[in-house]
Amino acid sequence: MSNSTNSLSSEKANKPIISLKNIYKTYHSSNIEIKALSNISLDIIAGDYLSISGPSGCGKSTLLSLLGLLDSPTSGEYFIENVNTHNLSMDQQAELRNLHIGFVFQSFNLIDELSVFDNVALPLTYREEALSTADIEKRVLQALTQVEMEHRKSNKPSQLSGGQQQRVAIARALAGQPSILLVDEPTGNLDSKNGDAVMDLLNNLNKQGTTICMVTHDVRYAGHASKNIQLLDGQIVDFLQAKSNEPVLDSSTVNQNSSANQSKQVMV
Prior knowledge:
This protein is of the alpha/beta class. It has helices spanning about 1-15, 60-65, 90-100, 115-120, 135-145, 160-175, 190-205, 220, 250-260; strands at about 15-30, 30-45, 50-55, 75-80, 85, 100-105, 180-185, 210-215, 225-230, 235-240, 245-250, 265. Helix 5 crosses helix 6 and helix 6 (about 160-175) packs parallel to helix 7.
């Protein structure tokens, strides 16, 4: 009986939160076709800490936008929590995004006129299933405590340092209790001291069980993640166990598969 229970528990733990299958994204401009992403297949498992890196123009931001349901692929399938997003309306995508995805942006995207508390609470007020005032307050204070900013709940963003504003932005993402945090260049607007502090915070959140997918151009910070995907010209060219520095997928294999038009599923 215990073996059966353990097997079911293990199967659930290994079930992807996000699954991309043969994703392509193409843009057309002045009769020119631009392939932003080509044949991306990827699974993200609960508890993963994944970084996506690569040179400017490699497709990092496009991939993050697709993961965040801010854009749609030209072809391929995207599942989040077993929901196929292909035929969803914009309202359905927004509901799914609000329920399962927490965003952390490079520029913080806090509203200057609102207090720290109200900035963190704002996304919760748009939930399809309305939360009570007491539930919202509980979630906000819990999230602010996680990032050690509860003592600043009455302050306005302009009264905070850049590092503190990014902590508030992370709290806003956490308050929704999302399946995954999508983090876009979290240290891009910070000095090295504040950048290191934010990365330490993300590391601790992941140790506590938060699933994180982070885009960064900084090699040092990419190494904080347990797994790293490297993009080049819209394709996955390397998938590394960053901390052990052992390649899971080498570039020659990916390039051969791409040339042969074969799909390569990456289990993260």
